[in-house]
Structure formats: structure tokens, C-alpha cells
Design goal:
The protein is α/β, with parallel strands linked by helices. It is built from 29 helices and 44 strands. Helix 4 runs parallel beside helix 5 and helix 6 packs parallel to helix 7.
């Protein structure tokens, strides 16, 4: 069994007496009290002769003066009568001097006040003297409840109070006597003051109720007689057993009424103790035996004396000593009944010394901890609680070195103000010196004696991870950080984790009530504030810290901060390394209170660590070292070993079972031990600690979360995050000791998101994850997506989601443009809130994966820049959001980039290009999916597989899908006309496109559909009544020869002459329709001054028509609407830009005709404000009123194969 705190009571070394006992006692008053001298007595002096004669002479002189004045017969002036009167008054004053009794009374009052103050100081010193003596000799009843448990067995043989016992209370002289100066002759002193001084000294010169102490070592025998003799015997036994260990005092007790003493460990083997005490009956043979150092004989009578040289005490309520002078009273005995003695004995039965104090020096950690073997570490007996005790953070690390007794050497991590060596220290040892084993032994010892609610570990190994291998399983471990040399990111995470823990502890102390330090916090938690959460001490052990500071010098500032603030926050730092380079400590060495020096590489290093070269001279025996504390005392030790095979006890004799009556201590049998090579002592301590922690529900707070994994799947992070927000990954926040979901919110920061990263960094996966996560947490009424894949991101799987309206690859230019047109349509035509009339989602997200490719100068779609800029600026107001990815931030124009508020980055090709945090970007690993958030934190985007997309699609199958992307049909059949000329289908809504303008211009390459457009217009005009329309068809290539004889054709020209004639006739007819001077305004408005059909001039292959033939029409072009002229022109693509500058085309363009730009190349530049692009036959771009009205598919009567 262990002590009440489940720890063995270690032997207090000689150098530690003041620390553990003497300094803790109330101070004994010293010196003396000075009394002032007694005032002298006041006596009347003898009257001088002149004083007697002078009154007589003056009376005679006055009488003579009066007689002479009366006999002179002269008138007497009144002034002359005043003069004798004045002389008489002076005489009376001289004869009656003032009394001095008032001076005597005042001096007495002052002196008596001095005596009162002197008596008060004397009584105060007497009370302090009594407290000082009672600290070492308390009342026996207070030994368990009134004396701290750490004082059990505190007295060694060198202790100044060793073998002293209290037998009662009595009077003793005051330790500060009153010093009275020599008063001289008593007759000269004031009697009142002298008597008061004498009485004051008599009253305070002795201190009452002070323990009467007997030094047993001075008496070979003590006789206790009288009716209360056994009461005093019980008091002596319990005091000896409480303050002295079994190795110092052995008790042999046979006296009646002391059967309770069987519980005391001192009765187990009294002969092995240095000082044996026998308590026997006075009439027994043992009373006169010489085999014990001291014999206490007890008898109820008052006449039993066993030896003449013995101390004879008579106990009859009062305490008397029999001396040669007779019976002298010492004082009163202490009332100490038998149940109280048994209670103390039963409590002391739990205590015992560690076995290593006997000098074995084996170095076994379990033996140093006072445990029989590792099986003693059971969940029910471990960690009884060291908080608030002297044993907190104090554990053995080994045994004394050669030439010593082999006693344990303790390392006390507490700060010096609490009696420890810490809070911070240094350990230096060369390769093979046993440094790693020492650190493991320290961790194992602390874990075996402290619960996770009392102590946590942060174990750091800069190189490799072998030092703390296995310690990660301890419930005390908050962090095990290894392999930092090759991972710069891990070093930064450790910096943030330790800094965050320091900040967390400061905030906790402040929030709990502005506690000054962790000690006050834990004291309040054990007392009046049990609701407070645990705040365990934190031990940070850093192995190879010199190399850490060499590669990361800024860590010195963190260590200095820990050294400065750790005292109040309960954070302890232990730095270990092979070498000590003080230049790298940068002020840290002033915070290192204790130093451990194992074998060093040189004597100079030993002097740096210990101040002496002894560590360099240590033998090549791992574990040998020196411990230096703040007191500059250097202690050699041999460290414990916990990595070897586990030694287990072999129970050769079956232990008795059942409940038995305890009759006394049984003899110890040395157990047989065997080596278990399948495990180590460290592993066994880890297993026992884990079992105890599971039973109690205690676990260290994790301040070091594992680094972000190489990959995290979407189902692991996908969760609702609010409207227009989705969790798409993990954010690593080591400062706050958290890894939170990374949320992308489209409702914040302008509503747009931009992702930048180099090739193969995970941009496309981020887009896929974002779309899938949004679809999993939103309905199709809330959000819809259009996706442009400009980087071969393989997003076609996303089309399975009902939220995705369409996906377009960069090579499908028409589909890309359709997406842009539809998204712009949402801006131009806001959605209706009525779902019966508008089933589009409330928010539309345009995803562009590969912005840099889509808008590159050599891209066929670079003309979409303006449309995309409009979406970025006007989209948020209409519920349109933009999500884009790029390889470089400068690929996005400032007018768009400035509108994107949410930005995050993956690994960029050049870290200096980062717009978030260049330092964080530089340290970012080149792993797919790893990036930094807008706040500069490290994050990992989740991986989304096709199976995840299919699962989300299946879960959303019951929702009405968003309207799918509309695309132009490959063929538009020309139906019956209804008064308007149908050109085809197209525009942003892909509806029917009619000829709204007065004229139509078509430009395109050969075979693009220009003639089909002329054919379409011809067919529809030909279907009109003859009185409302006639056709003039100019066909240089005779592509429409079949219509030459049509009844609606007023003129047909295929040759040059024919075309000139047709144009001239047409001009002549139309010239007649020009309004004259007599035409009224009403006629102009209604166009009623002429009658006849409208003339449709259809010109195919316009480039073959000589320009001079068109001269007759030039005066008519400004009046075409008034005179009913409609011109439809189709020409080839080559030279179109130059042709539009001709006189006829320039004038025609001023009339704002509808234009269809068929397939072409970029070399011609913009035509009607549109840059031509390659298109399929029949497909063109409609320009109306100078604006791009979108694509158009020309209607035709029959589909071309």
C-alpha cells in the first residue's frame, strides 16, 4: 500500500530540512525586549539660609519705610502707598513657590504606558513562541486532521527535532527576555514605576500552555506512573510513529491497552530501525532489559521506579517529575483517549518508504515510485490527486550516483515559490548518453502519478520520432509532434498550437474570474468553484531544440514567451539537445531554472550547462548525469530505465483470500521476478494509464490535431451551412486547436468566388465539390448551375444533378455562348416570384473552370469578356453569381477581379503572385486540394467522386430539375407565313426571329447559308398578295434561277445588263413614289400619297454586282421606308469589312438593317460590331439595331443532308 496520496513517503535529505520543515514553521521570536529605565523619585531640597533671612529683612524694611513716612508730617502720595504693597506681594510669592507634583504624575503615566506596550509585545512574542513549538509538537489529536500529510515521517536522524515527543503542556521562559538597564540604588527610584516594572516582568517572563518536550535519546528509560500514565504513553507512541519513519524508529509495544499499535508500520520490524523504543509494563522483565535504546515503563501506581537514572513522570491529571529535590510540577497532560490513538494508527498503516531508500539503487522506476510492480497501477488506485500537495509535479528520475546510498533523485517541476526546481529546465547529452531514455522515464513517472486532469504533455521531437515512440497512447498526451525537420508546415503548426494554448489559458483565467495564475484557479476549483473546467499543468518537452532554433530562429521568441508566462499559466518547458549553443537561446537561458547534464562532448559544454566540467568526465554509461538546481547544488544520478523488458512478479505462494482479522505485520518475502520480453515498462504504464483514464472519463485536451490528411472525401465534410453556403473541405486552425469545415458562401463578399492555382492543384475538383455540395444542401428552387469547362475538368458527370442546367466544354463554342446568353437573360429579365409562371431557380451560378483559357487573347471566345464583365457587375442584383478558376490572378481583368470578394488559392506557380498571403503561399505543400482560405489559413478541399455525384443526384431525383440549357436546333423548318418574314430561330431565348428592320444584310463564307437566307425571304415574300409585295431578284450566280418566272418576280437579273436594267426600272418606279410638295403630314404618316406593292430587292452574291449599277438607288436609300423599298443583300465574307465602307453599303448600314453574320474568320475584324467566328452552315449571329442579338439558325424549307 502507498500513502494517503498513493505515493511513498520519501526520505527527506539533510539539505532539505529547512525547505520541508523548518522554514515552514512559524518563526520563533528572537532577541530581547528593552525596558526603559525607571524614573527617579522626586525629593524636596533643604532651604538655603538666605531664603530664610531675606523675608525678615524685607518685612523690617517695609515697616521702617511706613513709619518714616507717617512721622514726617508731609502729605503722602498714593503712589507711595502702592510701592510697599508691591513689595509685600513679591515677598509672599517668594515664600510660596509653585508645586511640582504635576511633573511627577506625568512621568509616571508615560512610563506605565511604556510598560503596557512592552507587555503587549511580550505576550505577542509568547503566542508566536507557542505556535512555533506547537508546529513541531502539535496536540496528538491533531496529528491526522490538523497536520499536513506531507509532514508524515519528516524527521530523519539529522533533523533538529528528531526523537522529541510532547508529554503535556506547561510554563516555559519567554524566548525574548526583557532587558532592564541598571537602575542604581532602589531608594532613588520612583516607587510606583519600580513596582509596576517588577510586576510586568513577573507576568510576561514565562509563556503558559507551551508543549513540554522530552528528548528520548537522552534517557535510556522513562517511567510513566499514575492514573493517566497510559494516556501519556499513547501520546508518545503516536508522535514517534507520525513524525519518524520505520527506518529510524522501531516500536516494541507490550503494554496493556496498546493493542491498537499493531497498525503502525514501525512495529513490523523494529530491530532493523536505528532507534528502538519499547513500551512495556513496569513490572515486566523487559522493563529492565538493555536491548532497546529507550524503554518506556507504564504503571497505574505512583511508586513504580525501574531505574534511578530514568526519567520519572507522574501522570495524575497534572504532570510531575520526580527529581532529587522532590516532586516538581511540569504542567498538564494532554487528553488523548484510546480511540483517537487507534484512528491515527490506522491512518499511518497506509504509509511506507520506497524500497530504494534502503540503498538498493536498482533504478527500477516502479521501485522508485514505491510500487511493488506494474500490476500495482490499477485504475482504482492510480492518481488519488496531487493537486495542491507538495508532491505535485515531483517524481524520481533515478538514483544517487556511486558512493551514495542509492536513494531516489527527484525532479520537482514546480516553481521555486512552491518549493520546486522549475518551472523550466534544460537537458543536454551527447549521442548515446541516455537522453531519450531519461525523457521517456520522466514522462512515464509523471503519467503514473498524475491524472490527465492534473498534467498534460506536449512531446516534440524535431528529428525522427523514436524519442517519444509509444507515448502518443497516454491519455495525458495533448500532442506528439515528430519529423519536423522535413516538414516546414508542421513547424508552423506547432508554433501556432503552442501560442494558441497560451492564449487559451489566459482567456480561461480571465473568464473564470480574473485569476492571477493557474494555482489560484485550481485552488478555487477544488474549493468553492467545482464547476470550473480542469486546467492541468502542461509540460512541453522539445528534443533536439538546438537544431529547431537553427532552422527556425523565430521559435526562440516563443520559448521566451513560454518561459515568461508559463509560471502563471501552468506551462512548463523542458528543452533537450545534444549540444548547447547559447547564442541561439536569445535570452531564454535566464528562464531555465534547473539543468540536467548527461555525458557531454567537451568540458566546455559541461561548464555551459552545469558550471563545472564534471559531465564531460562521466563514464560511457547511458543514464549517468548531473542535476543542477537554482541553488547551484549539483547532484549526480543514474537515470531510471523504462524501455527494457518488463519485470513481472512471480506469485509462487497463493495469496490468502477472504477477510481476515489483522493481528500484526507479517514478514516480507522477497518476490521472484521474471522478464517479460513482449512489452516494456513504458508500454505497461501507457496501458494502465489508458485503462484508468477510460474508467474515470479523463482525457487530455488535444492542442495538436493531426495535420490535414492527403485527401478527405465529400461525405465526410458535407453538411448544411446556410443558404447559398456549403461546406467543401477542412480548415486547419492550429492556433485555436480546431479543424473546422471550410464553408464557401455565395451570399457574402459580393456573391462571386475566384479560385487560383497552378496546374494540377485541384481547381477543377474544387468546382466539382462546390457544385455537388450545393446540390446536396439546396433545392432546385434555390439554386441552379451553368458550367463552362475551359480546362478539360471533365465536369460532364455534373449534368446528372437536377440543379445543373448545362455543361459546355471550351471546344463547343456555340454551347458556351448559349450559356452566356441564358445567364445574361436572367439579368435582363428578372425572375418572377410565381412558381407557376417561372420555374427557374432563385439564384443562378455561372461556373467557369479555366477563366484564363476562356478569355485568353488567342481564344475564339475572348469576345465574351464584356459579357462576363457585365455578369460580374450586374449579376448579384439579379441573383446571378460567378465562380471562376484561373492559373494566375492577373489573367482576370481588374474590372472583374475587384468584384470578386471571396478568393482562395491553391499552390501557385510563383508565390509572389498571391493576393492573400505570400508567406502562407510559399509554405503551401504541392498537394492537390491543399490551399489557403481568404483569411490565410491552410485548408483542404474535399474530393468528389462520380459515385458521390450519382448519390446526390439520386437523393435529389424527386425535385423538379432546373430548366435545361436551350440550344439552337440543327434545322428550322419554314412553315406558313403569318404576315411577318421569318428568318429562323435564335436570340437569347431561341424564339422565332422575324425581319423587323427595313433591310437585311447577310455576310458569310461560301456554303454558309447566305443563299438559303435569300431563298427563305423569297419564299415568304412570294406568298404575300401581289398587291402588297413584288420581288426584284438579282442573282449573278443564277442560284435562284428557278424563281425567275415566278409571278411575284417583277424583274430578274443574272447578267450585268439585266441587273442594271432591273435596278434602273426599280429606281424609276420608286422615284415616282417620292413625296411632292403637295403631300401633307397626314399622308406622310400613313404613306397614302401613293399606291402599289412594296418592292423587295433581293441581291445574292452582292460582291459580283458592279457598284455603278447601284447609283440609281442611292438617292432613294434615305426614303426606303416611305416609298416601300426593302433591300436584302447577301455577300461573301472576303473583303466584307472593306465593302461595308463603300458608298452603297455605308448608306444602307446607316438605315440600321438587320444583319446576319455567318461563318467567318477573325482576319476581317468586326462586322456590324461582331467579330466573325467559324459556324456551321445555316448558323449565324444576328445583329439588330447595332447590338448582338445572339445566334440564329436560318429557317429552310428542306433540311440539307
Amino acid at each position: 500500500m502507498l500513502g494517503l496520496d498513493s505515493d511513498p513517503v520519501r526520505v527527506v535529505q539533510a539539505g532539505e530540512q529547512a525547505e520541508y520543515a523548518l522554514d515552514a514553521a512559524p518563526p520563533m521570536p528572537t532577541g530581547k525586549l528593552d525596558a526603559e529605565a525607571v524614573p527617579l523619585a522626586v525629593r524636596r531640597p533643604p532651604e538655603p539660609l538666605m531664603k530664610v533671612i531675606m523675608p525678615i529683612v524685607m518685612v523690617a524694611a517695609i515697616g521702617a519705610m511706613v513709619v518714616i513716612m507717617a512721622l514726617s508730617g508731609r502729605g503722602v502720595s498714593p503712589m507711595m502707598m502702592v510701592f510697599p504693597l508691591m513689595m509685600v506681594m513679591g515677598l509672599l510669592t517668594m515664600l510660596n513657590p509653585p508645586e511640582k507634583a504635576g511633573d511627577i504624575d506625568e512621568s509616571r503615566r508615560v512610563y506605565l504606558r511604556h510598560l503596557d506596550a512592552l507587555a503587549a509585545r511580550a505576550r505577542e512574542n509568547g503566542a508566536q513562541q507557542r505556535e512555533h513549538v506547537e508546529y513541531f509538537h502539535p496536540h496528538p489529536k491533531a496529528l491526522v486532521n490538523g497536520v499536513p500529510a506531507e509532514r508524515v515521517w519528516e524527521r530523519s536522524q539529522d533533523h533538529p527535532r528528531s526523537l522529541e515527543v510532547r508529554v503535556g503542556t506547561g510554563m516555559t521562559r519567554m524566548s525574548t527576555p526583557i532587558d532592564v538597564p541598571d537602575p542604581g540604588s532602589p531608594e532613588d527610584l520612583d516607587p510606583v514605576c519600580a513596582v509596576s516594572l517588577r510586576r510586568t516582568i513577573a507576568a510576561v517572563s514565562v509563556v503558559p500552555q507551551v508543549p513540554v518536550v522530552v528528548q528520548l535519546e537522552a534517557f535510556p528509560a522513562v517511567t510513566l506512573t499514575g492514573p493517566d500514565a497510559r494516556n501519556v504513553a499513547r501520546s508518545i507512541i503516536t508522535q514517534l510513529a507520525f513524525f519518524h519513519g520505520p527506518e529510524l524508529v522501531g516500536l516494541h509495544i507490550t503494554a496493556e491497552g496498546c493493542e491498537w499499535a499493531k497498525w503502525l508500520p514501525h512495529t513490523k520490524d523494529p530491530e532493523s530501525a536505528e532507534f528502538t523504543v519499547a513500551v512495556v509494563e513496569a513490572g515486566s522483565p523487559e522493563a529492565i532489559a538493555a536491548s532497546h535504546n529507550c524503554v518506556i515503563a507504564v504503571h497505574d501506581g505512583e511508586t513504580s521506579l525501574i531505574q534511578d537514572d530514568a526519567l520519572h513522570l507522574v501522570c495524575d491529571g497534572e504532570l510531575h517529575a520526580l527529581t532529587a529535590a522532590g516532586k516538581e510540577k511540569l504542567g498538564l497532560i494532554d487528553d488523548f483517549p484510546n480511540p483517537a490513538a487507534e484512528f491515527i494508527a490506522r491512518n499511518l498503516a497506509f504509509y511506507r518508504r520506497p524500497d530504494s531508500t534502503t540503498g538498493s539503487g536498482s533504478g527500477d522506476l516502479m521501485e522508485l515510485l514505491g510500487l511493488e510492480d506494474v500490476e500495482s497501477l490499477t485504475p482504482t488506485t492510480m492518481w488519488p490527486g496531487r493537486e495542491g500537495t507538495r508532491l505535485k509535479l515531483m517524481v524520481p528520475i533515478g538514483t544517487e550516483g556511486p558512493g551514495k546510498s542509492g536513494a531516489p533523485v527527484y525532479l520537482d517541476l514546480k516553481e521555486s515559490a512552491h518549493g520546486g526546481m522549475g518551472p523550466h529546465g534544460l537537458c543536454i547529452g551527447a549521442t548515446g548518453s541516455g537522453k531519450s531514455e531519461l525523457l521517456r522515464s520522466l514522462v512515464a513517472a509523471l503519467a503514473a502519478t498524475h491524472s490527465p486532469n492534473e498534467l498534460n504533455f506536449v512531446l516534440v521531437d524535431f528529428k525522427g520520432g523514436a524519442t517519444f515512440l509509444g507515448c502518443e497512447g497516454l491519455p495525458h498526451t495533448s500532442a506528439v509532434i515528430t519529423n519536423l525537420e522535413d516538414e516546414a508546415v508542421l513547424v508552423e503548426r506547432m508554433f501556432d498550437a503552442i501560442s494558441g494554448e497560451m492564449n487559451r489559458r489566459q482567456e480561461l483565467l480571465r473568464a473564470a474570474g480574473n485569476f492571477a495564475n493557474a494555482s489560484d484557479y485550481n485552488a478555487a476549483r477544488k474549493g468553492a468553484r467545482p464547476d470550473l473546467e480542469p486546467l492541468p499543468a502542461l509540460l512541453i518537452v522539445v528534443d533536439e531544440f538546438s537544431e529547431l532554433l537553427g532552422q527556425h530562429p523565430d521559435f526562440a521568441e516563443l520559448f521566451v514567451a513560454v518561459g515568461r508566462l508559463g509560471r502563471s499559466l501552468g506551462v512548463h518547458l523542458l528543452l533537450a539537445s545534444q549540444r548547447l549553443e547559447e547564442g541561439k537561446l536569445r535570452g531564454l537561458d535566464s528562464h531555465l531554472s534547473y539543468r540536467i547534464g548527461l555525458r557531454t562532448f567537451s568540458a566546455a559544454e559541461s561548464r555551459q550547462v552545469l558550471g563545472v566540467p564534471d559531465a564531460y568526465e562521466l563514464p560511457a554509461d547511458p543514464g549517468s548525469g548531473y542535476l543542477k538546481t537554482a541553488s547551484s547544488e549539483v547532484t549526480r544520478f543514474k537515470a531510471a530505465y523504462v524501455s527494457g523488458p518488463l519485470m513481472r512478479r512471480i506469485n509462487s505462494v497463493a495469496a490468502p483470500t477472504g477477510v481476515r482479522v489483522f493481528t500484526g505485520w507479517e514478514a516480507d518475502v522477497a518476490p521472484e521476478m521474471s522478464a517479460d520480453t513482449s512489452t516494456t515498462l513504458l508500454d505497461a504504464v501507457v496501458s494502465a494509464a489508458r485503462a484508468a483514464a477510460d474508467l474515470r472519463g479523463e482525457q487530455a485536451r488535444k492542442i495538436w490535431l493531426p495535420p490535414l490528411p492527403p485527401r478527405v472525401n465529400l461525405p465526410d465534410v458535407c453538411e448544411p451551412a446556410g443558404e447559398l453556403a456549403a461546406s467543401i473541405g477542412l480548415v486547419d486552425d492550429p492556433y485555436r486547436q480546431r479543424q473546422d469545415p471550410f464553408t464557401c458562401d455565395l451570399s457574402a463578399a459580393g456573391g462571386h468566388v475566384a479560385i487560383a492555382g497552378g496546374p494540377q492543384t485541384g481547381k477543377s475538383m474544387a468546382v466539382r465539390t462546390l457544385v455537388t455540395a450545393m446540390a446536396a444542401t439546396h433545392t432546385t428552387r434555390q439554386i441552379g448551375f451553368y458550367i463552362i469547362d475551359a480546362g478539360r475538368g471533365e465536369h460532364e458527370a455534373l449534368e446528372a444533378l437536377p440543379h445543373v442546367a448545362g455543361v459546355a466544354e471550351r471546344t463547343d463554342e456555340e454551347r458556351v455562348r448559349r450559356i452566356i446568353d441564358e445567364v445574361e437573360g436572367f439579368i435582363d429579365n428578372p425572375r418572377s416570384d410565381n412558381p407557376s409562371t417561372d420555374n427557374s431557380p432563385a439564384h443562378t451560378v455561372l461556373v467557369i473552370d479555366g477563366w484564363h483559357s476562356l478569355t485568353a487573347p488567342d481564344s475564339k471566345l475572348e469576345d465574351l469578356r464584356d459579357a462576363l464583365a457585365r455578369i460580374a457587375s450586374d449579376g448579384p442584383a439579379a441573383g446571378v453569381h460567378l465562380v471562376l478558376t484561373t492559373q494566375r490572378w492577373n489573367a482576370i481583368r481588374p474590372n472583374v477581379r475587384d468584384l470578386v470578394g471571396t478568393r482562395f488559392e491553391f499552390k501557385l506557380t510563383e508565390p509572389m503572385d498571391s493576393v492573400i498571403d505570400r508567406k502562407a503561399q510559399e509554405k503551401l505543400p504541392t498537394l492537390s486540394g491543399r490551399g489557403i482560405t481568404p483569411q490565410g489559413q491552410s485548408m483542404l478541399v474535399a474530393f468528389t467522386s462520380k459515385e458521390d455525384i450519382a448519390h446526390v443526384a439520386a437523393q435529389s431525383a424527386d425535385q423538379a430539375p432546373v430548366p435545361r440549357l436551350k440550344v439552337l436546333p440543327r434545322f428550322v423548318r419554314l412553315g406558313e407565313t403569318s404576315g411577318s418574314i421569318l428568318l429562323g430561330r435564335g436570340g437569347r431565348d431561341l424564339g422565332p426571329i422575324n425581319l423587323d428592320a427595313q433591310h437585311l444584310v447577310a455576310i458569310g463564307e461560301a456554303g454558309c447559308g447566305k443563299s438559303t437566307l435569300i431563298e427563305t425571304v423569297f419564299v415568304q415574300v412570294a406568298a404575300l398578295p401581289r398587291e402588297s409585295a413584288r420581288i426584284v431578284l438579282l442573282d449573278p450566280r443564277r442560284a435562284h434561277l428557278v424563281h425567275a418566272q415566278h409571278t411575284m418576280v417583277a424583274a430578274y437579273g443574272s447578267s450585268t445588263d439585266a441587273m442594271r436594267t432591273a435596278i434602273a426600272d426599280t429606281a424609276a418606279t420608286l422615284t415616282a413614289r417620292l413625296p411632292g410638295a403637295d403631300v401633307t403630314a397626314e399622308q406622310l404618316a400613313s404613306r397614302s400619297w401613293w399606291t402599289g406593292p412594296d418592292i423587295y430587292l433581293l441581291i445574292d452574291d452582292f460582291e459580283l454586282l458592279p457598284p455603278e449599277h447601284l447609283q440609281p438607288l442611292m438617292p432613294l436609300l434615305p426614303h426606303t421606308q416611305d416609298i416601300g423599298l426593302h433591300i436584302v443583300v447577301a455577300r461573301k465574307f472576303g473583303g466584307a469589312a472593306r465593302a461595308l465602307m463603300s458608298q452603297f453599303m455605308s448608306t444602307l448600314r446607316d438605315q440600321q438593317p438587320d444583319a446576319v453574320i455567318f461563318s467567318g474568320t477573325r482576319e476581317e475584324g468586326q462586322l456590324f460590331g461582331v467579330r466573325p467566328i467559324p459556324l456551321n452552315p445555316g448558323r449565324g449571329i444576328l445583329v439588330r439595331a447595332g447590338d448582338n442579338a445572339g445566334p440564329i439558325q436560318i429557317a429552310a424549307r428542306e433540311e440539307t443532308p
